[in-house]
Design brief:
Helices cover 42% and strands 17% of the residues. The protein is an alpha+beta fold and 212 residues long. The protein has three domains: 60 residues, Beta Barrel (OB fold (Dihydrolipoamide Acetyltransferase, E2P)); 69 residues, DNA polymerase, domain 1 (Orthogonal Bundle); 49 residues, Helicase, Ruva Protein, domain 3 (Orthogonal Bundle), CATH 1.10.8. It is globular, with a radius of gyration of 17 Å.
Length: 212
């Protein structure tokens, strides 16, 4: 079972990355919380890994902290929550936000995640409220191994933060046209210059789903 991977970042997208190590490229699916912290292409990254084995596939999911990985595992223990939906939840709610919502039984906050729905949100709260107390929330982020600063804007001809934000919203289930219109409106309304990717996505989600 693969626990961690350290390698060169060869593909960088809001839902999928590729890390190359020892001549092998590993496709890894990540939540937005991890994507925000990735450096540029060609830099070295170390991630916590959860390997999920199915009859027809072996899939790797990557996380920037052990807490994110444990939160992912807890979500997978909930009936009707699979890896894709667990990533969507962690893309919208950081682990501490998720734990807070579960402890306060804020079903609506979890239901606001695209693709969840009220029944699954209720299950998350009901099945995890006695389990989240042991989830440590103060883990340090796994920094790029080469010490490069975090950045959400890759160099060269790579996608802009706006492009990545649109892609991230589409991966969360938003229609492409609606995602572009929302991101455009967020950028037009920005009074603090060009926002970073995380800010664009969070403001777009607030417009689309009423997230605070």
């Amino acid at each position: 079972m693969i626990a961690t991977i350290k390698g060169t970042l060869e593909v960088r997208g809001p839902a999928r990355i590729v890390l190359a190590t020892a001549g092998v490229g590993y496709e890894i699916f990540v939540p937005l919380s991890t994507f925000y912290r990735l450096p540029g292409l060609g830099d070295t990254v170390a991630l916590e890994i959860r390997q999920v084995v199915r009859e027809d596939a072996i899939t790797l999911y990557g996380f920037s902290t052990p807490t994110e990985k444990r939160a992912f595992d807890l979500l997978l223990s909930v009936q009707h929550v699979g890896p894709k939906l667990a990533l969507a939840i962690l893309s919208v709610l950081e682990p501490d936000e998720l734990v807070g919502a579960i402890r306060r039984e804020e079903v609506a906050k979890i239901d606001a995640v695209p693709g969840v729905g009220p029944k699954v949100a209720e299950r998350v709260v009901r099945e995890l409220r006695d389990k989240v107390d042991g989830l440590r929330l103060s883990d340090a982020v796994v920094e790029p191994a080469n010490g490069a600063p975090r950045t959400s804007t890759p160099a060269g001809g790579s996608p802009t933060p706006a492009d990545d934000a649109i892609s991230a919203l589409v991966n969360l289930g938003v229609r492409p046209g609606e995602a572009k219109r929302t991101v455009d409106s967020v950028l037009e309304a920005a009074k603090d210059g060009a926002p970073e990717l995380e800010v664009i996505v969070r403001r777009s989600l607030a417009v689309l789903f009423g997230e605070k």
